[in-house]
Design goal:
The protein is α/β, with parallel strands linked by helices and about 800 residues long. Among the domains are: about 325 residues, Glycogen Phosphorylase B (Rossmann fold, 3-Layer(aba) Sandwich); about 250 residues, Rossmann fold. The chain has 36 helices and 23 strands. Strands 1, 2, 5, 6, 9, 10, 11, 12, 16 and 17 form a ten-stranded mixed beta sheet that branches. Strands 20-19-18-21-22-23 form a six-stranded parallel beta sheet, sandwiched between helices. Helix 24 crosses helix 27. The longest helix has 28 residues. It holds the Pfam family Phosphorylase. Its EC number is 2.4.1.1. GO terms for molecular function: glycogen phosphorylase activity; pyridoxal phosphate binding. It catalyses: [(1->4)-alpha-D-glucosyl](n) + phosphate = [(1->4)-alpha-D-glucosyl](n-1) + alpha-D-glucose 1-phosphate.
Amino acid sequence: MKTNNIEKFDKAAFKASVKQHLVTTFAADEKTASAKVWYLAMGKALAELTTFDLVATENDEKIKNARSVNYLSLEFLIGRLTGNNLISMGLYEEITEAMGELGYNLTDLLEEERDPALGNGGLGRLAACFMDSLAAQEYPAIGYGLHYEYGLFRQSFEDGRQKEAPDAWCGVEGYPWEVARPDFAQQVGFYGHVETYTEKGQEKRRWVPGMSVEGMPWDLPIVGYQSDTVYPLRLWECRAKAPFSLASFNNGDYFEAQHALIDAGNVTKVLYPNDNHEKGKTLRLMQQYFHCACSIADILRRHDAAGHKIEDLSKYETIQLNDTHPTIGIPELMRVLIDVRGLSWDTAWEICSNTFAYTNHTLLPEALETWSESLISRLLPRHMEIIYQINYLFLEGVKLKWPGDVDKLRKLSIIEEGTHRMVRMANLCVVSSYAVNGVAALHSELVKRDLFPEFNEYFPGKLTNVTNGVTPRRWLKFCNPGLSNLISGKIGNEWPAHLDQLSDIAVFADDEKFQKEFMAVKKQNKQRLANWVQENMGIELNTDAIFDVQIKRLHEYKRQHLDLLNILSLYHRILNEPGFDMHPRVFFFAAKAAPGYHLAKEIIFAINKVAEKVNNDPRVSDLLKVVFIPDYRVSMAEIIIPAADVSEQISTAGKEASGTGNMKMALNGALTVGTMDGANVEIREEVGDENIFIFGLEVDEVEALKASGYSPYKYYEADSLLQASLDLLAGDEFTPGKVGLLSAIRDNLLYGGDPYLVLADFADYVRAQNDIDAAYRDQKQWAKMAILNTALVGKFSSDRSIRDYVNNIWKLESVNR
């Protein structure tokens, strides 16, 4: 049921609730309380409204009897909730007014909120967009994740190098939007052994864990857009069942007294603990199993409470695995159905294989998760038995289809043979799921053609595509109010729920007045970003410059170092080519490198060192600036994305599954410079060749070049500009007195094989950048191109993505409450 929250809103009662929380929850005085405490009190008052709707939604009989999706993801990069929730509740102006009457500016208070650090990059941001779209369209759903005490890390730079610090996103005060649900707590085991016993004349197996912990659920509200529907994002925190031993403490063994507490707390202590050692691997697998065991137990609890038979589980529930991280949930559900519920293997498998669906997010072999057989056997012995049995029965079918084909058995087996036997989690997902999808048209075709061709032949129709999308509520309406208001003034205000309506503004692309208004909004957004950079980094920026943006996880295949080489080429030309003419440009980077990823950290260091020199070189003046914004997060993206003129999407063709930053920036009127990779292909189809800057080798050309024996040194020798740019990294131009300090990138490209073909694509990338420079000088034409990018990317709404899942995979029906 769509509702008018404005009519129900009682401003006086809300203000009273804020003041009450200020005193009773935070023991603060109105006259002396800090802005942070006022934000917390406001958040608590708002959370009361959403918690009421959360409980009402989960108790609605229509929801209980509807088919639901359970979205399992180890990451939910949800961003700050307050502003987005106010947009969905339709109360942004009302709360602005109420807090103003209490003496506080809402915009200032929103800055007090720390981003919930529950994700790393695109995987977690996509999960957040999907939950928003499920709630907006009222498809029954629960998101299941982990309640990490510390997020990925807080990033800072020290002499240009990345430094990592714990990200205590909850703070000592807690996060005002979350609510504990102790009645739904679950028990989870690890280690132990499997025993055989006889029941009613039948021999059975059961797991006897050696360690037990408790999963405490915390719910964050996912608020439906302009409706009463609120779904939970349920996050599990690991706690010890008996956290303290008084006997040990009284005997003076203070550490041992809290040993169980420490062991349990480690499970949800940090997002993605470093796993380049055995203890780290064990902890990460413990995280994954804890997440799955709690979530599946909760799904079964809800199913039972609704009065449904266990045999009907797949009728009422579907479980979407967001990448392979929750794969261990498959043998867990089998274990519960067989060992606890007493079902036969065949019945359990029928339920299980019709309940799970799997999203593949990568073509990179090193990113396809595997776990050693010995680790799973030690940590989860019963699950390893079940995996063996799934594999045995599956391979029997493979033998029937391809008799005597040992190579097919080897490729399709869930168990990878070798010195150490490994469990291939992606193979387990494909074998055990009723649907497998990629996340962009190109990616899904490559999954079928290159990654899983044998599976595609064995399971015809199982492998499909759902192109990713982004929520227009956060990524246009909330983060870019100037553009949102301009659009609404032309086409009405229904577009945040129907993004395809944006095509109606295409007719204004040639309208000179609209062009000026559109570019004025862009200029305001650029000024906001420039102000942030000035205040936080001390760098003064020219907002008439082209704002060129690359924001994403730092990885070689995303090729931030190709962007860097272009910057070096411009620097070289400014200093060495008399009369060289370019429009002023500011290159923005924001990215975190995984703590153990050496070359990624070297790329960050090099960009920062180049920035130091370039930004302070009087010979360059305002022509060229480089800004690496630290601690990239959702709230920072909300400032950067509306300000972008150029969106850098330059991964090696065939490596990026989809990308969603490309969608967000195009939606906000940035022009893409990109390869034919991921969703860039579909963005090009939507906006047209004339409104995007495509360069570089395509997938087949990449494969052909590698097959023919790629020699990066040949490209270096043949291109004087590339040579000059690379050689700048070899000396001490950017590190005075320290020759070769930046040479790691150069060495990797010239002598390390250049695995992502940076040098092969350099010349065409420079050509595309020159085209951008020329195009930007014609501001009328640029405005037209930017308007058409915004107008023509309505396809890339996560609402459409969810409808594709609903219609083609999940088979849900919207429940209007």
